[in-house]
Each structure stands twice: as structure tokens, then as C-alpha cells.
Design brief:
With 920 residues, this protein is mostly helical.
Length: 920
């Protein structure tokens, strides 16, 4: 098809232009978001327990503090990943398919030699996709490859040979249908899931994408100089245009910056800002599209302008897709290759084109004419010499560097394949072959092909972390640091040295990292947190201030500043810190602010709606908000939070926080007056001999002491003390004194004072002093849960309202069986109404809570006789025999016999106890 310039009308946006713009926009999006999505730097909350007093329990004249742990939350950093990006891979494949369709469609319109030349890269692209590894048609043979070559190549040849009169649009539709059909067949017949299929195809398409990027860079390498030429003469009036001097100065500034970049392998423009040749590619691509018509004299002999208008935006879209995928996966060698080649190509092509313009058009530029209109119609030096000089220079420079670009591209491809194999190995942990394959890809990519491959070392570290091979992970990350400084590598490596014996290694890693990257707030913050494990508080404050200067008002900085002040008991300074936080996005900061209130002046907290799965930060915020509501007696907030606590405790993912969640539920119900429910919740976590179980055992004892169950509390506190609860021994002495056992109380305090433990000695001496100075007379009135219900029941009895009285007594039995006077009153009420079984059940419930009470034992034995359950009175009588004087026991025995005889006389059929008791 002969070239025809008659159709070279002015360029205007088309749907292909919109597609190219969207592809470039996608690449820009991934340019900014790719590193954070592939290797996200995450905040890791760390908890430091501090003592917190919840309330004071009255033990006679002494106030015993009920203590729990509050949690100071600090934030450090860690780097996760690298994560695969299947969405980005799919978008890359779509754009590559669009470029393939347009390329083949345009090639089918060209002359025979140009058609053959245009189809060669297409064939190599299809060969490189390695579709046989997908198991299409349940075979690993190359049948599908032959099908692709036949349909795409055969279709292109048919259009070229037999459809010369077809318009380009019809060709695109035919080839598009073929490519879409092949794509659907691939994804429907692949043995891999769709996401993994896309990832594998994108990995094998990496070299093809790199070729597209290289072709685009070579094409637009002259465009920035041409844009300067246009800017130099774009004004309407010649007098308003720039002359030769400004053009030469601007061009030399541009080329000089590129020369410094290529010479030094990088160029820092401002602190923290470096020159990126890929950014310079944007104006070049825009200028290339806008000036495509004016450039037609240089290419119309091979590709007509009408076809070039289709081909150029498709190539731009395909190249942008390839770059976008490299950005999305933060693929170090691919990005290094792209930047290196782009910088060198822009320099050599721009410099050659600048000389070409000066040689051909310098007199016209001096006359301030619009040279950009005829820039590709030279009179002296032909345009192809620009590419001869530039490509020759690129080859020379690459040869001096041992041609690193192919190795870098292959290293990038191996990164993609390694990520995919690692992801598959994590899905099937028992299949070690995939893990070995991933490790081999990473080793080849990072140790052989491109030694500065941070992505490969991160991939190996992730592989080792999943397999819990800490030593190998440290080796991989140290290998990455040998290649050059990296904030993310330093953060992740320092996080592995988290044991006390690793302190100096962690400090050294973070110090070296901060020295190489002095603007890293993450490194400064982590260094401050590592110094908190030492006594060097000045160093902690210094690095906390440095982190705040580098990232003012950040979530991590505010959290760590407040946490440090709390850990040093500097509450006044902590209160001066800026308030306000969003618990949904800043749970650690909100948790520290609530803890500050708990330590100083509690405030009501809104009942949080925590996530279904807790981490340390969200747990601490939930924990402190519940305690704040308890301390401020916010009953509505407590009730609103209870369902959340129950749901969270049932979730298996929250197993690390199960005991604390149960504790919160129990204490919340205790604060609401639901004492029996609180104790029942606490019983499972109080079982055992650990220090944590001992704390819950002591807490049960304190609650019993609070309800006047002195004998029961003394036994419970002795049990807790035997498991290591230090405070329990002191409180037991007070419980014994209140139970009318002063000698036993002094003996308990004496044992504490004689302990070899200095802390227990001090506690014992203090207890002896309290017992000697204060009055612990038994019988002191104590306000118990259930007293109000007892008063209501007695009022109902006096009003002859038996139903209301029964309802109140029933509530006492169900919710306050530990209230001994109320239970005894309930037993008498049921006995008077001849509800002997109900009386027995009520007294049995009370005896479960106060098993040593002689009054309850006596009432229980008589109620058992009244109910005909004499077998169940045996143990109670045996206990009373030991507790009572012989005369008192003889009186009780006579009374018991009388009750038993009365029951037998009333009903001979129930003269013996049933084999199975009515209630257990």
C-alpha cells in the first residue's frame, strides 16, 4: 500500500487517544501507589502493661485496691509482602492485547517486506507466553501455541493478501475477535485459577512489554527537544518568539541534566527529590502524539499517517501497561532497566536531534521562524542520522556495561514468576517443590542476573518468614542491604532483632539506616522504641522528637509520644499533648488517651464497634473503653458493649485475647450488679495454677469479701496465694479477722512477715500493723447485692402478697445466692408455705456459695429432712458435728429427727429419699 500524505489532517482526540491517556493515567497511579501496595509498610502495635486500680474493696477499716493491667500502646513498623497484583496483571494483558490487535491490523496494510518485519515480533511474543504450562486442553503440548500462531498469523496474512481493500476498522474487528476468542479460551481451559493465570501470562509477557517500552522510548526520544523548538517559536508574532540563544540554553540545560544522570547513575535535584527519566517520558509522549502529523515525512514511506494515528496510541497504551505493571509490583530490575534505558535514550536521541536541528535550521531559528513545522524536512543532514548516532551510542554504552538490560529484564520476569510460585507454595504449605522453585527464581534473579534486586531479596525473606526460617530471612535481608541502603529493608530487618539479646544488632541496623536516609520518620520512630528497652530515656526523647519533626502530627508519632510520657508517669505533660483521635483509624492513639484518663480522671467512652478480628491496638482501645465506662459508672455504655465482647470472645481469631475479653465481660457484669453471672464467667479462666489464673482467683476472693462472704473469701484467697497471687495473702488476713478469727489472721500476717521474700515481708509487717491498730469486729453491716430484693420480699409478705414475695425470693436464689441472710429468709419463706423442695434448692444454692457457714448448714440439713432428702443431709450434719459444741449438735440432731419424723408421718410413700435427686 503506497504512502499517501493527503490524509494528514490535524490530530484530534479519538477513542484510541482516550485509551492511551487512560493507560498512561494508570501507570501514573501505580507509580505512586505500587510500592505501598506491593511492599506495604505497616504499623505494628506493641503493648506494655502498667498497673491500674479499678476500685477499692472495703475489708473492715482497710481499703484493698482491685488492680488490673492497663496497656500502653506503642507503634513500630514492619514491611509485608511482596504481594502479587493480579488486577494490574490483568490490565497489562488487556492493554497488551489491544496493542497486539492494532499492531497486526496495521502490519496487514503494509507492503510485503514491512508486513513480514512487523509480524516477526508478534510471533516471538506469542512464543514467549509459554501457554503450554497452563495445561490448556489438559495437555502440556504446544497445541494451543500452534492454534494462536495459526489464527493470528494466518488471519493477518489473509487480510494482507486477500483483503487489500478492507478499511483498518474492519481489520481491527476481525483480529480483535480472534484475540478475544483466544483469551477466553485460555482463561476457561487453564488449569490455574484466573488470577494465577493472569499473573503467569503477565510474567511471561514481560520481555514483550519491555520491547514495547523500548520502541516507544526510541520513537519519542527526540520529542522533548522538538517541544522546546515549538515553545521557542509558538507565538503568532515573530517579535514575541524566542531566538537561537534561549533554545540553545534550554536544550543544554535539559541535556546537561540527563548527562549528569547517566554519568552518575542518578541525579539529586533537591533533598529527597531525584531526577526520574520516566517522568520526562510523559511530555515526550504527549508531544509525540500531538506532533505525529508533522513528523509524517519521516515515516510515511513505510507507515501511512492514517495507520500511524492508530498504531501510536496503541503502542503508548501497551508500553504504559508494561510500565504500570512494573510500578504496581515495584519490580526493581525492570524499573532500573526502564530508567537507565530511558535516560540514556533521551540523552543520545535528544542530543543527536539537537545537533540535527542546528545543522539544518540554525539560520531559520535565528530569524525566529516556525522551524518546528519543517523539522522533519531537512536540507542538509538527513533525519535517519539521528537514529544512527543515537542507537550506535546506546550500543556502545551498553557494551561498556556488558549489556545489563537483557539481564535486568529477565531478572524482572523471574521476580514475577518467583512471586507467583511463592504465593502458590503458601496456599499449599506441604508442597515444598513450589517453595524450592520460588527460591530458585529469586536466587537467579537477585544473585546472578541483577545483584541490586531488592524485590528478589524481599521475596526470599517472605518465603523464609512463612516457613519460620528466621536465620535465612536475616541473611536475605542483610544481602539486600549490602547492595545499597533501603528504608524498608532496614525496618524489616530490625524487626527481626526483637529479643533482649539482639538489642545492639537492632540499634546498629536502625542507626545505619537512619544515617543513609535521614528523612525517614519510620526509622527514627523505631529507633526511639528500641531505646525504650534501655535506661537511655534521653535517647528515646531525642528520636521521638526527630520522628515528629520528620512527620509532624502523624498517627505513629502522636501515639509514641503519649505512650512514652505515660510510661514515665509524666501525666501532667501527657495531658498537654494534642487531644482528639479517630478510634476507627487511630485505635492505638485512642487507647493511650483513654489510659491517660483512667490514670488521672476517667471520662465516659463511647461503646466502640471493634472489628471482628482484634489486633493489639484495637484490643487495647476496647479494653480501656470498657474500663473507663466501669470507672465512670456508665451503665448504658457498659450494657451496649457487652454483646460486642461476647461476639469477639467467640471468634477463634481472637484467641490471644480470650482471657482478657472474658475478664472484661465479668467485670462489666460485676459493675452492673450481676454478681453471679460475673463469677460464672470468671470461673473457667480462674481454673489452673498459672499466675494469670491466680489473679482471677484473687479477684473472685475480693468479690466474695465485698459481699461479706468472709470465710469463703479466706479460703479462696488462700487458694490464690498458693498459686502466686502476692496481694492475696494480705487480704486473706483481713478476711479471717472479719470472720471472727483474729488469731488466724495474725498467724497469716506473721507467715508473710517471716517470708524470705522482701516484698512479702514488707506486706506482712504492714498487715500486722493494720490488725493491731484497726478494729476488725465481726458482724459489721455490709451492703450486699440482694438486700433490696429481700426488703421488697418482706414488704410483700407484710402486705400478704405471696406472689410478689415469691418472685423476689426467686430472684435472690437465682442472682444473689451468696447473700446469706437473704437466702435464709428465702428458705424460711418456702418452708412456711410448705414448698419444702424449693426451700431445699434455695439453701443448697446458698451453701454452694458459702459452704462453711454453720447457719446455712443447719438450715440446709433441716430443709433436706423436710423435703425427704435425708441422704443429702449427711455431709452437712458431719460438718456441723465438727463445728458445733456437743450440746448444740445434740439439740440440732433432735430437731433434725423431729423434722424427718414429721415428713415420714405426712407421707409414707416418700419415707426414703429418691434414687435420683430432683435437682442437681
Amino acid at each position: 500500500m503506497s504512502p499517501n500524505l493527503a490524509s494528514t489532517r490535524a490530530w484530534r482526540p479519538t477513542w484510541l487517544g482516550v485509551l492511551a491517556a487512560l493507560a498512561v493515567g494508570l501507570a501514573i497511579f501505580y507509580y505512586f501507589t505500587g510500592p505501598a501496595s506491593t511492599l506495604p509498610m505497616r504499623l505494628l502495635p506493641q503493648l506494655q502493661a502498667v498497673p491500674l486500680t479499678l476500685e477499692q474493696v472495703a475489708a473492715g477499716p482497710v481499703r484493698v485496691p482491685v488492680q488490673a493491667s492497663g496497656f500502653i500502646v506503642s507503634l513500630t513498623h514492619d514491611v509485608a509482602g511482596p504481594f502479587t497484583q493480579p488486577v494490574a496483571a490483568g490490565l497489562f494483558l488487556l492493554l497488551l492485547a489491544a496493542a497486539l490487535v492494532g499492531w497486526v491490523a496495521v502490519a496487514s496494510t503494509l507492503a510485503r517486506l514491512a508486513f513480514v518485519a512487523g509480524m516477526i515480533p508478534v510471533i516471538f511474543l506469542l512464543l514467549s507466553l509459554n501457554t503450554e504450562s497452563l495445561g490448556i486442553f489438559n495437555t502440556s503440548e504446544r497445541y494451543f501455541l500452534y492454534l494462536m500462531l495459526g489464527l493470528v498469523g494466518g488471519g493477518a496474512y489473509a487480510l494482507h493478501a486477500f483483503a487489500e481493500e478492507w478499511r483498518l476498522g474492519r481489520r481491527v474487528l476481525v483480529l480483535g475477535a480472534i484475540v478475544v476468542g483466544l483469551g477466553l479460551l485460555i482463561f476457561s481451559q487453564s488449569q490455574l485459577p484466573a488470577a494465577e493465570t493472569a499473573l503467569q501470562l503477565a510474567a511471561y509477557a514481560t520481555p514483550g512489554g519491555a520491547v514495547l517500552v523500548a520502541l516507544l522510548v526510541l520513537w519519542v526520544g527526540v520529542e522533548n527537544i522538538r517541544a522546546l523548538l515549538w515553545f521557542n517559536a509558538q507565538a503568532e508574532q515573530p517579535g514575541s518568539r524566542f531566538g537561537l540563544g534561549p533554545f540553545v540554553a534550554a536544550s543544554l540545560l535539559y541535556l546537561g541534566a540527563l548527562l549528569l544522570y547517566v554519568w552518575n547513575d542518578g541525579l539529586q535535584l533537591l533533598p529527597g527529590v531525584s531526577l526520574d527519566p520516566l517522568v520526562l517520558l510523559l511530555p515526550a509522549v504527549l508531544a509525540g502524539g500531538l506532533g505525529l502529523r508533522l513528523r509524517a515525512p519521516s515515516y510515511a514511506g513505510t507507515v501511512p499517517y492514517a495507520e500511524a494515528r492508530v498504531l501510536y496510541p496503541l503502542v503508548v497504551a501497551g508500553a504504559a501497561g508494561a510500565l504500570g505493571y512494573a510500578f504496581a509490583t515495584d519490580n526493581t530490575p525492570l524499573l532500573a532497566a526502564a530508567r537507565s534505558f530511558t535516560g540514556l535514550a533521551l540523552l543520545l536521541l535528544g542530543g543527536s536531534f539537537w545537533l540535527y536541528v542546528l545543522i539544518n535550521f540554525m539560520p531559520l531559528i535565528q530569524q525566529r521562524l516556525r522551524v518546528y513545522r519543517v523539522a522533519f524536512e531537512p536540507r542538509r543532514l538527513p533525519f535517519y542520522t539521528v537514529y544512527v548516532l543515537a542507537v550506535g551510542g546506546i550500543v556502545i554504552v551498553q557494551s561498556r556495561r556488558s549489556f545489563p538490560l537483557p539481564d535486568q529484564v529477565q531478572a524482572g520476569q523471574y521476580n514475577h514468576l518467583g512471586d507467583l510460585a511463592r504465593q502458590q507454595s503458601e496456599a499449599t504449605p506441604d508442597d515444598l517443590s513450589l517453595a524450592v522453585l520460588a527460591e530458585r527464581y529469586y536466587a537467579e534473579s537477585g544473585d546472578v542476573l541483577y545483584r541490586g534486586n531488592f524485590h528478589a531479596q524481599f521475596g526470599r525473606a517472605a518465603l523464609y518468614r512463612f516457613r519460620q526460617q528466621r536465620g535465612n530471612e536475616i541473611v536475605a535481608l542483610n544481602r539486600a542491604l549490602l547492595r545499597g541502603p533501603s528504608e524498608k529493608v532496614s525496618v524489616r530487618l530490625a524487626g527481626l532483632f526483637n529479643q533482649p539479646e539482639d538489642l545492639f544488632e537492632g540499634l546498629d541496623i536502625l542507626r545505619r539506616g537512619l544515617k543513609a536516609q535521614p528523612r525517614s520518620a519510620a526509622l527514627a520512630g523505631d529507633l526511639a522504641q528500641l531505646f525504650t528497652k534501655t535506661a537511655l530515656n534521653d535517647s528515646v526523647a531525642f528520636y521521638l522528637d526527630q520522628a515528629e519533626r520528620l512527620n509532624p502530627g502523624s498517627y505513629a508519632s502522636r501515639t509514641n509520644q503519649l505512650g512514652f510520657l505515660l510510661s514515665q508517669n509524666l501525666y501532667a505533660e501527657a495531658q498537654k499533648q494534642p487531644g482528639g483521635s479517630n478510634p476507627a483509624t487511630e485505635p492505638a492513639l485512642a487507647a493511650n488517651q483513654l489510659l491517660l484518663g483512667l490514670l488521672t480522671k476517667p471520662v465516659k467512652a463511647d461503646a466502640p464497634a471493634p472489628p471482628a478480628v482484634l489486633d493489639d491496638a484495637t484490643f487495647a482501645h476496647l479494653y480501656h473503653s470498657v474500663l473507663a465506662n466501669i470507672k465512670t459508672q456508665n451503665a448504658a455504655g457498659i450494657r451496649q458493649g457487652l454483646p460486642h465482647l461476647a461476639n469477639l470472645a467467640r471468634a477463634e481469631a481472637n484467641a490471644p485475647y480470650y482471657e482478657q475479653l472474658v475478664f472484661l465481660q465479668a467485670y462489666a457484669r460485676h459493675a452492673l450488679g450481676q454478681e453471679r453471672a460475673a463469677r460464672q464467667l470468671l470461673l473457667p479462666v480462674a481454673a489452673g495454677t498459672t499466675g494469670t489464673a491466680a489473679y482471677y482467683q484473687m479477684l473472685l476472693g475480693l468479690w466474695q469479701l465485698q459481699q461479706g462472704q468472709y470465710a469463703t473469701a479466706a479460703d479462696q484467697l488462700a487458694f490464690a496465694a498458693s498459686h502466686g497471687a502476692v496481694q492475696a495473702g494480705e487480704t486473706r488476713a483481713y478476711a479471717l479477722a472479719l470472720n471472727g478469727q483474729p488469731d488466724s489472721a495474725r498467724a497469716q500476717a506473721g507467715r508473710l512477715a517471716a517470708s524470705p521474700d522482701s516484698a512479702l515481708q514488707l506486706l506482712g509487717r504492714r498487715t500486722l500493723a493494720q490488725l493491731a491498730a484497726a478494729s476488725f469486729a465481726p458482724g459489721v453491716a455490709v451492703t450486699r447485692i440482694g438486700d433490696d430484693w429481700l426488703a421488697q420480699a418482706r414488704q410483700a409478705e407484710q402486705a400478704n402478697n405471696a406472689a410478689a414475695a415469691a418472685k423476689s425470693y426467686q430472684r435472690i436464689v437465682q442472682e444473689a445466692p451468696f447473700n446469706e441472710p437473704a437466702i435464709l429468709a428465702a428458705g424460711r419463706f418456702y418452708t412456711r408455705r410448705r414448698s419444702y423442695t424449693a426451700a431445699y434448692e434455695a439453701l443448697r444454692a446458698g451453701l454452694d456459695e458459702n459452704p462453711q457457714s454453720p447457719t446455712l448448714l443447719r438450715a440446709y440439713a433441716l430443709a433436706a429432712a423436710d423435703a425427704g432428702l435425708t441422704e443429702y443431709a449427711t455431709d452437712a450434719l458431719a460438718q456441723l458435728r465438727q463445728q458445733l459444741a456437743p450440746a448444740a449438735y445434740a439439740t440440732l440432731a433432735a430437731e433434725y429427727e423431729q423434722h424427718r419424723a414429721t415428713r415420714a408421718a405426712a407421707s409414707d410413700s416418700f419415707s426414703v429419699a429418691p434414687a435420683i435427686p430432683p435437682l442437681q
